[in-house]
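HUMAN: You are asked to prepare a plain-text protein record giving the amino acid sequence and the backbone structure tokens, both parts labelled.

ASSISTANT:
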Amino acid sequence: MISVAKVQRRNAWRYYVRGVAFGDGHRPVGQSLKDAQEMAGLPPGVWRGRGLPALGLTDGQVVTERQMKLLFGEGRHPDADRMERELLDDGVDPATARRATVLGQPIEEIEHRKQTPLLALDFVFRPQASLVVLWALGDDRTRRVIEQAHERAVATTLRWLEDEVAQTRWASGRGRAKAPALVVAVFRHYDNRNGFPLLHEHCLIANRAQRPDGSWYALDTARLYKNIVAADTLYTLTMTTEVCEELGLATVPREVTPGLRPVMEIAGVDQELIDWSSTRRRRIEDVLKGVTDDYVKKHGRLPGERARHGLAWWAAQKTRPEKKSPRPLDQLLAWWRVSALLKFGQRMVDGLLQRCQAAGAAIRARVGPWVDTALAAVDVAAVVFTVRGVFYRRHVLAEARRHLLETLRGRAYVPGIDSYIADRALERYSRQLTVPQKGRRAPAADQLSYTAEFTSPSRWWIAGTDGKLPRESTRYERAKVASLALQNAIRTALTEPAAREEKAPAATASAAPPPIGDHEHDQAAPHGVDHPGRAAAQTPAQRAAAIQAHQQAAMPQEYLEGRTTDPATWITSPQNLAHLAALTRAAEARGRTVEEQADQTKRAHQAKQAPAADTQQQHHTAQPDQGRRPGSDL
């Protein structure tokens, strides 16, 4: 998972030098960063990124306090002191010498315009809670595998940001260019502020990138923000896959919030261990539950994606504890083990990896290492359209990576298959909304907006648990319904010509072209991974049955049971029928009570008006000769 924070103020670098670079602790005043890290047993920060050679830095070089101040505090070259001194020795005036060390626009000019300069973005990478538990309580090999997978996943994500996302901007954003070279300072932490395990990496991405002509400009940070979810899914997919392949593990979905997307955790890690390590998360969730209930009462609906992020950030800030004194990793590992042994016992702690491997073996026995790209494209397009309506390629790419994580359950995948599925979903099942305007620059591929023509499932009500009221289905639940409905339609279309083609000999069936609607199941797809060992002479009906069996084996169990996808299951289950019947009876009783009260009020009102009406009628009764004109009888 990835979270992002801004480094804006000119003294913000002090927070990272004194806190983040020191393991989120308080560095003693007057002590250098290097000495403090060595005394506390903390790893030093290192430089990463393709933009380092332009600054005279190398990959893996240690980050110094002075470099932090120059780059992230003043927007200058990390080696500005030497450069400025050499210029002064050559007779250059001080102002010119200082200006020569500035990267891009000086901070003073930005502040003169009453604007707050953005110096860097802090990308924080952290694995799932189950992987953190395995890392904290596992043996040396397990810990080494998880750390190496974490490092490679972070490096892969940073490379993807450099290749596909990063751009420089100038002239108030009117000019843009690719920036395939970032400058990143990386700091690794082992625990949270409560002292419990939380392996994570702080990556400070400098808000400066060099163009081919050698000039330095600011990054298009808005573009980075828009692609955070796609980067998040890439990091999670890369790290989880490597750990599962190396240790023989598999993943299972864990529902954190009812109705929202589940988190793919390592199978076999007990929920008690996850709760033990996630003390800060539990505090955040307790506060978040309250503010979410207040939001529902105020707006009458569940918060959307942006509102959830805002509420989660507010809950995190509300429950944030004070900084602690950092400790070396070996002390933390010993303390975590003692804490877990006292709480859960030696059998649960020592047998953690064996239970995870046993659960992983059972899942791998029924989930093959392949992905049906046709059904994957349908699933991705249907989910993204139902959730968003209007979407961009980054949304489709993120959903394609989620699909791989949910379907393969930790197995290895072919590199590039996520982009292939995303392109298939856009090409086959999406309609472009962005229209290029004549005389203007054509929009880039990632700036094109799309929609789809799928039929969105109607909303339904889901019975509450633990005394809670029924809730309305979320967009994600409706998206899974739409996806499964389309997949079933494809399977049905595949079986229609089976009666005719099953009569053909095996050789003819193997040489015959695929039926209509099955054009994406061919093995000629550049990244398509088909079922290995499947007989070439299978009929379409047999092939569709194999695909359906694979999808059911790979589908999370709650989807098969219909708990979050099939509205009919919610209506027809005995528990929900009884609960809904009770709600119906209560509603009808309330309705009858309201009707009776309304009838009583109406009768009382009529009884009060009856005497007044009789008196008024007698007063206005006409006399026999009243109203006649004189001589009317003549």
Summary: Residues 603 and 609 are 10 Å apart (CA to CA).
